[in-house]
Amino acid sequence: MEPQQIREGYLVKKGTLLNSWKAVWVVLSEDGLEFYKKKTDHSPKGMIPLKGATLMSPCQDFGKRTMVFKITTDKKQDHFFQASHMEERECWVKDIKRAITCLEGGKKFARKSTRRSIRLPDTVNLTELYTLMKDQDDGVKELKLEQDNRVFNHCFTGGTVVDWLISKQKARNRPEALMLATGLLNEGFLQPASDLSKEGAESGEQTAFLDQTIALYYFADSGFFCEGYSSDEDTLLKEEFRGNIIKQGCLLKQGHKRKNWKVRKFMLRDDPAYMHYYDPTKGDDPLGSIHLRGSVITAVEYVPDAKKYDIDGNLFEIITSDETHYFLQAATAEERKEWIKAIQAVSKSGK
Fold first, then answer.
1. Contact 84, 248 (CB under 8 A)
2. What is the DSSP track for 176-209?
């Protein structure tokens, strides 16, 4: 009997021999994790058995590389994967952990909520708390803050987080709020932005989060970026990143010159309406941006010059106001529908 397929999608994987990271198509089944060079490949590049395996998330072995989780097999082989954003990592981690648990108990896979392995009361749900903190109206406000001749965008202070936790009655006092904030930091929901907060996170102390107004942090899947004092031209460029992130994830994108297809991480922002795309295996600098104001977005069944890649549906096209054409492919029909709906809304409402 074929094992049940549980989840599939793009992740970035670290090579087992070389210290390189590449985007791969990953399929999770009841007994293992298969990864493919391309979604359309029939044979996987490798398979990771989950029986007797352990999972660590977040895995902070790689410094600036966030959203990483580690699977260690029964034979003590480590495999590292990186998701494109927080919610994506949480979904993969929850399903992989559940698959491992079901294998250990000899049971068929069934989704069930699980507790994270950190020392917090059973009533605390860090995922729900993180969602509340990001609420546009009642959450922690993201600000532009200046410190040490640098400008930190989309961030907030440690003291602000502690104050918010107490004001929303999530904690009774500052020590209790500090414990919750440290849990959010340890689990990767919050990230240190300034040098002081980074030192605190790396100190190994029980309360690695700093309740200080000069310790800066940011949401792991926010539009955070840091810059030195810059020219007016640089400031105009940075305006592209000012909008809230509406949607993010990996898509296949056709190149304009060679017409080949590559996996790119996309971040859709509103006001101003931009979609930035990144190499998911590298840092935070975008490869390019699409100005969406006045764009036309439609589902298509055919792409001209779709060579060097076996394209098999779920395609859509963005035509910008200056008539530049972008062809993209989602992983599923439902994902294509979601992206088209989100981009259309932003193109009409954003600047």
1. yes
2. HHHHHHHHHHHTTSEEE-SHHHHHHHTS--S--S
Q: Which of 220, 120, 137, 116 is nearest to 178 (CA)?
A: 120
Which three-class secondary structure string do you get for 262-300? Answer: EEEEEEEECCCCEEEEECCCCCCCCCEEEECCCCEEEEE
Whole-number pLDDT of residue 115: 30
Q: DSSP 3-state assignment of 37?
A: coil
Helix (H) or strand (E) holding 227: strand 225-228
- Rounded Cα distance between 161 and 179, Å, is 11
- pLDDT per residue as tens digits for the range 59-115: 888 877 888 999 999 999 999 999 988 888 888 998 999 899 888 888 777 654 333
For the chain, give me the number of helices (H) and strands (E)?
7, 19
Helix residue spans in the chain (DSSP H): 86-105, 126-133, 158-167, 174-186, 195-201, 232-238, 333-349
Q: Buried (b) or exposed (e) across 203-233, using 16+ Cβ within 10 A? A: eeeeebbbbeeebbbbbbbbbbbbeeeeeee
User: What are the tokens at 240?
Assistant: 């592209």
Is residue 325 helix, strand or coil?
strand
Q: CA 348, CA 273: separation in Å to the nearest integer?
A: 9
pLDDT at position 230 is: 46
CB 299 within 8 A of CB 319: no
CA 31 to chain centre: 25
Q: What is the mean pLDDT of each run of 10 residues along the chain (351 residues)?
A: 78 85 93 91 91 90 85 94 87 90 80 42 82 92 87 91 95 92 86 86 74 92 68 54 84 88 91 90 84 93 67 88 93 93 88 65
Structure tokens of 339? Answer: 């992206």
Q: Could you give the CA distance from residue 40 to residue 97 in angstroms, rounded to a whole number?
A: 27
> Chain-centre distance of CA 243, in angstroms?
17
